Amino acid sequence: HEQQEPPTTDVNQAQPQTNKQTKKAKQVPKSKQNKSKKSTTMQRAKNKKTEIAQIRRDLQGERTISLTRLTGDTGTDDGERRSQLIWQNFKILEPTKATAVVLGSDHPDYAEGKDAAAANSAALFETELIPAGPAGVPLERLSTIHSHYFGSGFEKAVGKKLRQFVTEKFEYDEATKRAKAPPKLLNVLRKREARELINEELDHSFSVKRQMVEKPKREMVKPPVFAPSQMVFDPDMRPRYATTKMQPDELEERGGGFDGKGGGKGLF
Fold this sequence. Notes:
mainly alpha; three-stranded antiparallel sheet; 6 strands
């Protein structure tokens, strides 16, 4: 009987089957992936609601609270997220300044939710549109600035599209796609600035005149009192041998005349 050789298996054919098996084993069902995503989103939403409720409790019974006090350190992730939540849900006065304050429940203009987000958006856009004047600001720049402070899309935070909001609150040029502050608002601000400059000038001139009237009289400065000098010439106190030339009184002290040899002969 002839022996039959065992069938040979191709290694290259068997290897892809093992790879397919491992891939199938590693693959996670889509249902589990969807459940994990839903759980993470739900956890984030829960944390967001908890933080908003905490901020609301901090504002209860208060008129205003400093924005920096509520946000804490904005250099950290927690501080930045808390700041964005305040921008989205609570009204802020002068939001871009260092003196920004969040309105508390005792303030008459207190607002929450979409109304607060709309008011904060309008105040934020005014800080860009008013200095720009008639030239206006591109709509894309407003969208970028808004997302920086709010941390979300405009429509999600305010409930309206950005173009619709700008058209209602300000002026929008469809050709150039630029937003502008209303001319009436610019004129009012210019008149206010001119009035403030005039008042400052009047206050300055009044203070100068008042200083001139109430200026105290200057007293004459008396010269300093010096001790009498010891170098004043006094004939009675002159030195005896200050010079080699003899004075007449010194000649008299020697007996007068010439007592030396010759008796003064030979002078003439």
